[in-house]
Specification:
Chain lengths: 511, 348
Amino acid sequence: MPADTEVPPVVDMSSITIRFPGVLALDGVDFRLFPGEVHSLMGENGAGKSTLIKALTGVYAVDSGQITVAGQQRVLTSTSDAQDAGISTVYQEVNLSPNLSVGENVMLGHEPRKARGIDWRAAHLEAAHHLESLGLAIDTRSTLSTHSIAVQQLVAISRAMVLDAKVLVLDEPTSSLDRGEVERLFAVIRDLRAKGVAILFVSHFLNQVYEISDRITVLRNGRLIGEHLASELPRSELVAKMIGRELDELAALSSVAEREIDRTATPVLRATGIGRQGDLEPVDVEVYPGEVVGIAGLLGSGRTELVRLLYGADRADTGQIEVKGTSARMTSPRQAIDRRIAFSSEDRRGEGIIGDLTVAENIVLGIQARRGAMRRIPRAEADAVVKEYIEALGVRPADPSMLAGNLSGGNQQKVLLGRWLATAPELLILDEPTRGIDVGAKADIQRKVAELSARGLSVIFISSELEEVLRIAQRVIVMRDRRKIGEVSPQETDLSGLVEYIANKTEETAA
Amino acid sequence: MKRIVRHRLFWPVVALISLIVINTIARPQFIGVTVRDGELYGALIDILRNSAPLMLVALGMTIVIATRGIDLSVGAVMAVSGAVALTIIDGSPDPEGVGTVTIAVVTALAVALVLGSWNGFLVAIGGIQPIIATLVLMLAGRGVALLITEGFITTVNSAPYSFISSGYIVGLPVAFLIAAVAITTLALLERRTALGVLTEAVGINPAASRLAGVRARGIVFSAYVATGLLAGVAGILYSANIRAADANATGQFIELYAILAVVLGGTSLAGGKFTIAGTVIGVLIIQTLESTILFLGVPAAQSPVFFAIVVIVVVVVQSPQLHAWVRKLARSRQSANTDAPQKVKVAS
């Protein structure tokens, strides 16, 4: 039920400005949150969403502007200030203690006491009561880490309920949930909304935003673009507002898939029967010069396992690999790199970016590793390379001395792409390069891949977004249950055809 | 000014200077350096010379910590190295010969190199947690030293060997010069080649570094080898100073002092970014503090407590949390002042 504007807002932020060294993160942004509504905050990475949330939750101090919570002007200088004001936050990465019990996590810091210490019986009873109100009937004495991320997320929300939150901030709560878990979370959100809690929701998934939101506020480059009722804002208009440019750019890429690939040439990479016990049934893969091969399949279908074997990140125990016609043993990433194969992992923070090094050091890392520790790349050469890729890929802010960990996800992905392109690879393996990044950066990366492949680079492209795979690849390998179930051509298959194939195609007999 | 205060070596340098100032106020001759026969003497020179073993060990510890590791065996390696050198000199017919001493030192360093490689092997190739892997040698090393000296404290009189610790070259103590050469070599190696940045990359994110093609194993391995070698040199300096190989007393607790020096200098125990200059200052702080205790005549029984109190103060002063808290306090003071009724300047 959309909140009507007659009720005073529970949160009213006006003219919020936050400045970081060299960046104006928020520029006079207004934001309102009404009781009993779900309000989505939308914008590209770097638009200022996280900064606004952190201003509201007391992580960042505002440079100017006012925050009023429940009619009372507040200066929020710490997260406990925000909690006192009735604002609770559930972050993307669950901020709980995995090795404590569920009940301990829910009640942490608010345990009921008796004469001698904490009354654990009462604490667990109360925790169970809170969990039940979210429809969660689990043993409060079980260890938190034994539960799925979805359950942990719900535990984090019930923790917010203990604090009797008037405002609940959900920052990307669904990014690691499957469809059923999302449904469950949404049911809880609707329930809380009915109880009059104001919910600030942030997600990259447009479908979910439209499914749950009453109101949408759009930010771009630290400025407020507009506040709309979700029912009155068409999807295409929302995207246009977020990226501030025409969507046609994405559509223009569709011609890429139609490019002719010479499949009589020697393949850049040919793997036959490559597999690993427990990870992947033997698979055949061929990639020709200038070709983009997509890999489609659900999470856990073996796509990541396959490319890790091709790159030598994990060791294959069956099969052969040929690189440009000569057989190669891939037992470590170094061997793949020496044969001009590059691999960008799906785990950007864990296996990609070196967060505490600068953007420049991250970009140069690939070529430096190739040259070895003793031959440092001269300063001038490094600067030139860094400048080239920051410009070519549009890394923002274009500051080589910034710590890479402080960049938004999309820009980190661009830095990684820069690291690998600088090594002049002949085969580039990209595992989920566009996951969790905004539409603008997504378009930039797709365009770059199309451009590079047109110039002869071979690419293996993995993405959960099938539309993206169909748009960018000339051939799509389909995987299911740790095996390859076939190949399709994007010219002959549309999205529904591909979905059907992934879901129902019976395995091809080995030809 | 703000930039100077924010520099990560600011607080360590302040701590060091404060210690020197306190000493000078207590006894003005502390700061004095006299020249005798073209050689420099004075409390400050003593500090530079006496800090050499800890300096060498802490330099190695810095690199190991940067790779997310730790090396607890440095004291034991010192003991072994000293034992090897002195046993060779003791058993030689010509303990005063330069040739004998050279052989002794080279052999001792070779043994230290082997011990460092053993640590490196366990950590980099064996994948054993550094604290456990080096604990093995920490415990076993002193036993090995005792085996070498056959359970005795080997003492020797060898002028060339003593020269390593107490001699002078161009007016400066040899021990200090050895430490200076180690500092310079390491600094050049880390910053002029890419070793420094690749070490940091491995320390910050080992998985990402491996996928980026960094030879992480080689870098981790070489860090332990270098630390072993540096501890070997420290062992020679130590035994040359006391002219004895004492398997139990040599380098006792030095691993803890070295870790303390690294942390005082501003390198995080979590690995990654490291600063050699910071470690040098950290070592000098510790050594100056020890001299201060002697200088101020703190009774021996109370000196550990005194030492601990000063270290706590230095660590707390450096804490980023404290800085944030002070800034916040200053800011709320400021805004409280501006909120208070003020004379309003009438716009002209």
